[in-house]
Design a protein that fits this description.
globular
Length: 189
């Protein structure tokens, strides 16, 4: 089962759980307005960008996320990090989807900015993404399956688009019932 924002809950030791709660407290939560805003292109590949990428990778890992976008840490820059399968996490800067497969698939997605919510979202089964790496080098990635889903989810974040905007009306209504009223961050989970 794909879950683009978040790894399924599993047995976690207390230290990992403490790290997860601490990481989530640094991730902007719905309905924070920054999640609806358009991120800007990155122009300088400087030390600030390297630090941002390292911070985002750490937060994603600690929070058991599969991806994390700039908006979610309050930075309106076109950067996201993701975990492609088993290898090291990757950072994509100024990503663009060049091609989407005609074939699509609907599956459940979660989001680190919407705790406790999973909704069905239709995504292209594969995408070709062009981006810069954090040093300014050029990348072109052919992504399929869950990795393609995560990339589409994160690029949506950079455009201020959330899974609530992509799901059906009933699922949206149910998700909003979970999201309101807002729990105090980190208090209950
Ligand atoms: Zn998300």
């Amino acid at each position: 089962m794909a879950d683009a924002g978040q790894v399924l809950e599993e047995e976690r030791d207390p230290r990992e759980e403490a790290l997860r709660v601490a990481a989530l407290s640094q991730v902007r939560q719905y309905p924070d307005p920054v999640l609806k805003m358009q991120a800007r292109e990155v122009e300088s590949f400087d030390d600030d960008l390297q630090r941002l990428v390292e911070r985002m990778k750490r937060l994603m890992k600690d929070a058991y996320g599969l991806g994390l976008a700039g908006n979610q840490v309050g930075i309106l820059r076109r950067v996201f990090v993701f975990q492609p399968g088993e290898g090291d996490s990757l950072a994509l800067v100024n990503p663009r989807i060049l091609e989407r497969s005609d074939e699509s698939e609907t599956d459940q997605e979660g989001c680190l900015s919407m705790q406790g919510v999973r909704v069905p979202v239709e995504r292209a089964l594969s995408v070709t993404v062009e981006a810069n790496d954090p040093d300014g080098g050029e990348l072109r990635l052919e992504l399929t399956g869950l990795t393609a889903r995560v990339a589409q989810h994160e690029i949506d974040h950079l455009d201020g688009v959330l899974i609530l905007d992509r799901t059906d009306a009933d699922s949206r209504r149910e998700a909003l019932a979970v999201l309101r009223p807002q729990p105090v961050l980190g208090a209950s989970r």
